[in-house]
Amino acid sequence: MAKISRLTGLVADVALGLPTKAVPYEIRRDVPVPMPDGVALLANHYRPVGAEGPRPVVLIRVPYGRDGAFGQLFAAPLARRGLQVFMQATRGTFGSGGQFRPFTTERDDGLATVDWLRKQEWCDGRIAMAGGSYFGHTQWAVAPYVDPPLTCVAPHITSANITHRLFYEHGAPSIHTALSWSTTIGRQERPGLLNAVPDPRVRTKVRRALGKLPLQAVDVRVAEAPVPFWRDFAGHAEPGDDFWAQADHDGADLTRMPPVSMVTGWWDLFLGGNLADYTALRAAGVPARLVVGPWLHGEPGEIRTIAQTDAVWFDHHLNGGPAPSGAPVRVHLQRANKWLEFEEWPPNAVREKVLNLSSGGGLVAEPESGEPSRFTFDPARPTPTVGGPMLQPPGKQADNRLVEARDDVLVFTGPLLSEDLDVVGPVSATIHVRTSIPYADVFVRLCDVDERGVSRNVVDGIRRLDPRTVDAPDIEQGSDGVLAVRVELFPTAYRFQAGHRLRVQVSGGAFPRYARNMGTDEPFATATAGRPCHFELFHDPARSSHITLPVLDG
């Protein structure tokens, strides 16, 4: 076994905001775990120096390598707190056998690993799981199904229903996220340091590749070889395709879940699923805690908070340490620079504020009669997007004025705010729209306009329209062909400051974050030609288009 330098651990603890007093540990590398099909998955086993007898185990299943940054950020901090950690490379990655087909084998492999761990003499039968993003999802693939249950889990910045909530958000393929991640996993094991760190040139290649048609094989343009995940993503995007059912666990029996700790960010692309999972867990009676900060996916503040909450969480559940303090829900109120605590999410202490989109381009309390607003979405010049929850920077808030100046974007602006307006909770919109063709997207974005007229995005959402899904619960079709489309925007906790204005954008797309809607029944991966779509957006009292905000008073 290899012993780890105290200096390395000290530096990491300081960076993560953890206590610098640490327990020395050793690592047994390349521990093989046999799977039922004969494949062996390799792991690194962290154990306190001089520890005797069986102890609980924190299992981390990760596709990005068992050493390097991920080991230092997720496994080593727990080991320095005296915990036994088993960090396993998922199938087909970093020495583990088989092929890496993301999300499709994690349940079977994870359950087999837990069963194997419980048979080892150094494990006392108590197993917890940790990790964020993909290796947060590996916890969802295991925790609802283990018998006996796990002791606790910490699935951060992730979702039980990762494919449909992230990669096909309300029917719209998230091509920028999918290709960016495909490129990362397609290049990560190649020799050379540059393949292990973010490269601005690769990001440029991603954006250029997404402008090409067809999209089916653009992974080769960026990763220089086919990437199985991109091919699966591109090939299984159509309504009714059940390929990803094996990867979605939001239908699992949540009463079987152990206590759960979650950390995510308002600009994290997993946010919507994370919060929906938290609400479902609490409804099922599962003890759960939640922290939401002002972070993009994987930002240093998010990683530090994960490390700090994990240290307390696992010490409490595995070592009998003190329970986490404070209310179960702690969220950062953006633009107010303060934290709020609640007993539940969404918070009960909010009221709904409805703002109607008027034909004159305003946001008003009551719907007003007027002519429909019109615009045309042309896939040959797709409506661009800036900012928002992205996998990699740049994201978060951005100046939206250039996008709002386009003729394919409708803009509705409210009056000056006389006092601060705190929006805390889920945001939604109902858009009454008639389209010239049945294949279209409805994209809605809420913005904060400051005293200088700079419009910054706060939350947004998209809904893909398709004849095969037009009878879904969130779409209501009238006899006149007008659709009432409910668009789920991201949740938030955000202060619109006095003197600012609220603004709502409505458009037919947000490219390249989402695949442009080509206006035909061709799969997005193989389409090469598109049709423009003409939109009519209605405002009258019987068909009012509006946005609903959860407002926190006091």
UniProtKB/TrEMBL annotation:
Keywords: Hydrolase. GO terms for molecular function: hydrolase activity. It comes from Paractinoplanes aksuensis. Residues 311-548 form the Xaa-Pro dipeptidyl-peptidase C-terminal domain. It comes from the Bacteria. SUPFAM superfamilies: alpha/beta-Hydrolases, Galactose-binding domain-like. This is CocE/NonD family hydrolase. Pfam families: Peptidase_S15, PepX_C.
